Amino acid sequence: MSDENPSDLGKIFRDLSTLIGDFRISNWGDLTEEDRQTLEDAEWTLLNYSSDFIRNDVENTLNSLKVDLDAISNATNEAKEVVKSITSLKNVLTLTANIIALGGAITSGNVGAISGAIGTLSKSVASVW
Q1: Residue 38 within a domain
Q2: pLDDT for residue 5
Q3: 81 within domain boundaries
């Protein structure tokens, strides 16, 4: 394993995982058991993406596919800021689903899916911010 720092994308997805977990804990009494489980599942999915992105040096792979890493970084960083401030479960679930979709697209290496997921996440962020 390299001694280099973990990828920025890996760190962003780890932060998103933590924020979703914080939302779940902070709103525990207001959530149904199903909502709690949905958020916990999302938290683990994002954490797994984070680990995969760091371990597999996904940023170099995306660069080789000519994917716009700045667009991914901007969309996910904006999502982080929104998740920190929103209180609506519906909005958190929508954003989380779109973040997970982006993570899945990145994992697949499908450039078209990545571009579409970035657009969807950006629109979602704009609609709740």
Answers
A1: yes
A2: 58
A3: yes
Q: Is residue 1 domain-resident?
A: no
Q: What are phi and psi of 6, to 5 degrees?
A: -60, 155
Burial label, 5 (beta-carbon count in 10 A; 0-12, 13-18, 19+): exposed
Residue 64: what pLDDT? 85
Q: What's the number of domains the chain is made of?
A: 1
CA distances from 126 to 44, 47, 55, 89 (A): 25, 24, 31, 16
Burial zone of 98 (CB within 10 Å; 0-12 exposed, 13-18 middle, 19+ buried): buried
From the list 13, 12, 33, the residue with the least C-alpha distance to 24 is 33
Q: Is residue 49 part of a domain?
A: yes
pLDDT for 25 equals 97
Q: Does residue 20 contact residue 92 with C-beta atoms inside 8 Å?
A: yes
Number of Cβ within a 10 Å radius of residue 86 = 16
Task: Decide if pLDDT at 88 tops 60.
Answer: yes
Q: Is the pTM of this model over 0.85?
A: yes
Full residue range of the structural domain in which residue 90 is found: 8-128
